[in-house]
Every structure is written in C-alpha cells, then in structure tokens.
C-alpha cells in the first residue's frame, strides 16, 4: 500500500507500513529534534521525498474551491494532496481541511490521532448586515468582514 505522510506523522510515533512518501515542503516544516529524528527513521525504512507535478496541483486547487477550503489550505497541503492524487495513495493526516479536499478528489485519508473528519459544508455570512455569500472577504453591501461558518 502506498501512503503519503503529512507533517503531523513525524511528531508522533504512529507506525506506517508499505511504500511511504512525503513532499519537500513537509520536510521544511520539521524543525524540532523529535520530528527530524522520526523523519530520519522513516527515511531508513524507505521514505521517499517527491515533489508533485503542476497539473495535479491545479486539480487540487480546483477541488479546494469546490469544497470551499481554498482559503485555509496551505501550499504544503496542496503538495500533499497532489502527490497522493498522482500516486493513488492514502494520505495520513489529522487536518480537517485536507480531509475535506481529499474527499472531493476521492483520496482515502487515514487519521493519525484524531477522528476522521466528516464532510463539512461552509456558508459565508457578513458580520455587519448578516447577508450570505459564497466567499469570504469584505461585504460589498456594508463593508464588514464576511466570515466562514459551518452550515
């Protein structure tokens, strides 16, 4: 089984078997001695660090817009999802936004320490006038902030 690992796996002692992969951007997030040590152990067991292609990154961005998580997923998250998509691999993560986008893309996710995320639908509401929109930002009616909320 192929697996792509989010950075949270390197901060834990969660066992992972099979072919394992991660991205260079995840490696950049590993700054403490524990996570670096776990990274080195997994490298000794066959962990491969691979960058995803540009087309799959664009596919992930489109899926993030569909799931309405585009404003909260990072470039590292996009890399992870794109790599899992390219390799047809499971994705180990506790990040709910990543799990949301993965569901749209049909990528299987494996939670590390937390429960698996349920599919979340977002709505956007102006804090000033209370109108609903399909995006966050500034309200075109009253100028107040539009905030994301669970439906």
Your description of this structure?
α3 crosses α4 (75-87). The protein is of the alpha/beta class and 151 residues long. The protein folds into two domains: 2-110, 3-Layer(aba) Sandwich (Rossmann fold), CATH 3.40.50; 121-151, Single Sheet (Rubrerythrin, domain 2). The protein has helices at residues 24-29, 33-44, 54-67, 75-87, 96-105, and strands at 2-5, 19-22, 48-49, 90-92, 109-110, 122-126, 132-133, 137-138, 145-150.
Summing up helix and strand content along with how strands pair, one would put the structural category as: alpha/beta
* The CATH topology of the largest domain: Rossmann fold
The 3D shape can be described as: elongated
What would CATH call the class of the largest domain? Alpha Beta
Task: Return Rg in Å.
Answer: 17 Å
Looking at CATH, the homologous superfamily of the largest domain is 5'-nuclease
What is the ordering of alpha helices and beta strands?
EEHHEHHEHEEEEE
Annotation keywords:
2 domains; alpha/beta; 5 helices; five-stranded parallel β-sheet; 151 residues
Quick description:
This protein is an alpha/beta fold and 151 residues long. The chain has 5 helices and 9 strands, in the order E-E-H-H-E-H-H-E-H-E-E-E-E-E.
């Amino acid at each position: 089984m192929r697996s792509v690992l989010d950075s949270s796996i390197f901060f834990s002692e969660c066992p992972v078997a099979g072919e394992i992969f991660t991205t260079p951007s995840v490696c950049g997030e590993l700054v403490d001695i524990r996570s670096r040590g776990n990274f080195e152990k997994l490298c000794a067991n066959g962990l491969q660090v691979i960058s995803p292609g540009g087309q799959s990154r664009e596919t992930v961005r489109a899926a993030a817009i569909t799931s309405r998580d585009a404003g909260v997923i990072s470039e590292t998250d996009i890399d992870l999802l794109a790599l899992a998509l390219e390799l047809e691999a499971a994705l180990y993560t506790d990040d709910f936004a990543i799990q949301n986008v993965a569901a749209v893309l049909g990528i299987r996710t494996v939670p590390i320490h937390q429960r698996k995320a349920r599919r979340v639908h977002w709505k956007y509401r102006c804090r000033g006038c209370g109108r609903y929109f399909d995006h966050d930002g500034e309200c075109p009616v009253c100028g107040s902030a539009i905030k994301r909320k669970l439906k």
